[in-house]
Amino acid sequence: MDADHAGHKLNCRQASRLLSLACERPLDESERQALRRHLDACLMCRNFESQLEFLRKAARRLVDAP
Amino acid sequence: MSLSPVQDPRFAEIEEHRAYLVRYAMAQLRDEQLAEEAVQECLLAALEGIAGFRGQSALRTWLTSILRFKIADLQRRTVAERAREDVGEQAEASEDEDWIDQQFDETGHWRSPPQAWSNPEAALEQRRFWQVFEKCLGRLPAVAGRVFFKREVLGEETDDICGAEGITAGNCWVMLHRSRIALRECLQVHWFGEGVRSGR
Questions:
Q1: Residue B62's closest chain A neighbor by CA?
Q2: Which of A11, A48, A59 lies closest to B152 in CB terms?
Q3: Which candidate among A22, A56, B135, B154 keeps its CA 20 to 30 Å from the CA of A63?
Q4: pLDDT-derived band of residue B193, with 50, 70 and 90 as boundaries?
Q5: Which residues lie across from B194 on neighbouring strands?
């Protein structure tokens, strides 16, 4: 996907793409490192990360929601 | 003497699942009219068979299993007339891409930053939350909503979904990404937001 993040810093738009992409396939090493560096410094994207997890959990529960 | 369907107190209970069932049917049939038809037939069958439903499974699960038969039926009937609308799906994917770009400013920062949600797990136990979730799903664009439903609700593999929808993996992913950002935002505004909790 974005091949431009090896080495330099990600912005939130790129980081959120990787977070969403990680729901579809395992990230490669350089993607993981770049993402990790961004998340360490960015609370908003960490929130986004946990919200993705929550969305996934909620969606799975929809199948037998009350 | 048996009650007519509308008088049956469980009619209302079954009706509450309609929105979910329509979404489920749309995911498989990709056609609103057919989806409505499948759900209609499913609900009629459910009302006839409700006496036999003993509640071993959730009502929704039981309804879905009936719906699956109705969908398979309709699919068999319509399989011949199914080569269409892929152009519309390409158009939506590029619109989704634009929409995603608009969620960020020129420097790539969030325009509406994700805030921490307090105790999201508790929401899952609340009936009202599921109504909000359903409403937020309903606001997604047609194809994106369908792709998200198959991926995250039904847990299908992305490759299978793209194949069935006749769209590229890249477009498929863009739709999922848009759906996730949009749902997150919708839940923040309509459920987790401060304004909501303080009743403003």
A1: A64
A2: A59
A3: A22
A4: confident
A5: none
Read off the amino acid at residue A14.
Q
pLDDT digits (tens, 9 = 90+) for B30-50: 888 999 999 999 998 888 888
pTM here is: 0.77
For residue B134, the distance in angstroms to the closest alpha carbon of chain A comes to: 9
Residue A38 tokens read as 């961004």
Neighbours of B94 (CB within 10 A): 11
What lies within 8 Å, CB to CB, of B72 at 6+ separation is none
CB crowding B139-156: b at 16 or more within 10 Å, else e? ebbebbbbbbbbbbbbee
User: In the structure, how many helices (H) and strands (E) does chain A have?
Assistant: 3, 0
Q: Do A11 and B108 touch (CB under 8 A)?
A: yes
